[in-house]
Amino acid sequence: MKKLLQLAFNSEVPDISERYRIFASALVVIFTISYSIGFLQLLHLGPYLGPGLGDQVSFQPLLNSLNDLNANNPGLWLALMALLSFTILFRLAAMLGGYFLFEREEGEPYPIKWIVVFFLTNMLSTFAIPLMLLALGGLFFLSGLDFAIGWHWVDHNVRIAHQLVMDYVPTLVNAPAPLAVLIIAVISGFFHYWFHRLGHTQRFLWLMFHRPHHMTPALIQSTTMAVFTALPLFIFVVLPYNLVFAACTKLFSSEPLYTAVIVYNCLILIPEIFGHQTALYRMASRNRLIRLASFISGGGVYHYMHHSSEPEHCGRSGAVNLVNIGGGPLFIWDIIFGTYCSLSPKTPRAGLSGQPELHLNPLRLTLAGVAQVCSELLSNPSWREKWRIITASSDYSPPVSTDFAVKEQRTTHKQATPPAAASHGYSFSSGAEVIANAGAKSATAPRS
């Protein structure tokens, strides 16, 4: 058994012949269609696809909202259906284009090996969700409590957060729906920004939760690691996450804003798809309309700079991955906190800082953060070091450390794959400069 586990953890997916390209393409197409349909479950949720007022992830709120709108205002229903259809079809075309145009842009087709490795890593991370809920339910059962508390942990926490917010958070201003959504987007964006930023600057969160999202060397949707399934650590933060975002909603609306949020999400999700498409960066960054829509939404093609592995694109600080963090329209919080980065004239290489060579083993990549933290805790006898392993910033590395995701392992001194957050000397851009640059032709130089 030990040898079998070692083999599973240490072996790598070999190069896969182009003769299997049709199967890889079919996998990408099936994933893309399924992803586009599944995404509809999130359209009624808050401006950041997070919780609103304790709402569940399902199709029912979307269907209810559309049915109510059709009964009360058929003209508006028709307009919303047109917008919804355009958003879905546009995103579907962009996701397929990101894969099928990859060879034209990069000189070679998207490696089948990457499709297999990162698709399986995504699947393993997703499969870990019911496994952890099962384990949590078992712990409750062994403690003499109800197994269902652990198994339905996420739903249970959503209900608790909802009840706490409804009982204790006042509605300061019951603003009209469009204005309320905009205010909520800005206010909740502050928390979204800092949750995301901590995922980079706090080493425990980086290794255990957020680093997988930044591992892929070239981005298409089906190989970009989902943030919310990583580890999945999210089951431990689901309560505070729901509390914060539901509270932001309740402050400005006493009722869910389903229709207004669906419209808002449809609009921001159009440019959003360009944030994880390597092959579409050059086109999107040179298109004035896409560039402006991306800036207004606070993401889009600008988010691709967040996935850059090359320090030279974002200033001398080398602060790769800590730019264009997002959180609010017009990159308001990036501008305020100095992490805004304009578009590069050429397509940046994606991935971890310096794009190190990874162990192309789905199981290893899935468990790399857990393995590294556990290995560090066991290998460093000092309690002071153990404490720092859990609480220190991302630029810290204990005396003994092994990176299980990267082939070049370093057991002393610096961390093997720091998220380039060691230097925080960002180049600040003023709001006026940023807004002026958003619509300008800032990315028209030829790609090198």
Automatic annotation (TrEMBL):
One of its GO terms (molecular function) is oxidoreductase activity. InterPro entries: Fatty_acid_hydroxylase (IPR006694), Sterol_Desaturase_Related (IPR050307). Signal peptide: none annotated. The keyword Transmembrane applies. The chain crosses the membrane at residues 20-43, 76-102, 114-142, 175-195, 216-237, 257-276, 288-305, 325-343. It holds the Pfam family FA_hydroxylase. This is Sterol desaturase family protein. PANTHER family: STEROL DESATURASE (PTHR11863). Its EC number is 1.-.-.-. Residues 182-339 form the Fatty acid hydroxylase domain. It is an enzyme of class 1 (oxidoreductase). It is found in: Membrane. The keyword Transmembrane applies. Keywords: Membrane, Oxidoreductase, Transmembrane, Transmembrane helix.
